[in-house]
Amino acid sequence: MNNEYKPALLIIDFQEDFCPPIATKDFHPPDHVSFASNHPEPHNKPFISFVTIPNPYNPDETEISRLWPVHCVQGTPGAELIPELDISRVHMVVEKGQDARVEVYSAFGAPFRNPVVKEASTGLAQSLRNAGVTDVFVVGLAMDYCVRSTAIDAVAEGFKTYVIIEATKAVDPSEEGWGKTVKELESAGVNLVGLAGEELAKRAG
Fold first, then answer.
1. Structure pTM?
2. Where is the Isochorismatase-like domain (predicted)?
C-alpha cells in the first residue's frame, strides 16, 4: 500500500489588480478576449456582459465567459504579485491567460478539450507530477472563478484536492453565489476544508 503524501499549495492570483508554495498569475496581452473594452457596445459592460468564446481550433466547442475590466496586463504594475507574498518560498510561478483568444481561469490551462489549446496550457500538471505531488491545496482569488476552475482541474488531473475556505473570496459572495460554487466543487470531488481542519495538520512524510 502506498501511503506517500506530498502536498502542494497553489496560490491563485494574489496580484495588485485583485487585492485592495506555487503561485499563479493572470498575465494578459492588451487585446485579451476577456476585456470588456475589446468588445463593441452595447454588450461590453464589465461584470455584466458575457461573451461566447470558441475553441480556436474547433468553433463548435465554446465557453460562455463574463467580461471584465482591463486587469493584469503584461508589463504593468497590476500584474505583479503582491509584496506581502513571500516569493522566496514559492517554487514556481505559473503565468496564465497569455493567449488573447481564450479565457483561462484554471492554473492548468484553457477549458477546451476537443482539441486542447496547447498555447494556453501552463504545464502545471506535469510539474506537480514531476515533483511527486499527491495532494493539492488551493487558495486565492476568486473562489467562484479561478480557484474553482483550478481545483476542479486538479481533481481531473488525478490529485486529491482541497480548497481552504478561509483563504479565498468570491466575486459573488452572496449566500446563493457561494453556495452554487461549493456545490460545483463538491460534485467534482473537491474537498472544502478549514484552517483548523486535520488536513492542514498532516505532514509530508
1. 0.89
2. 8-175
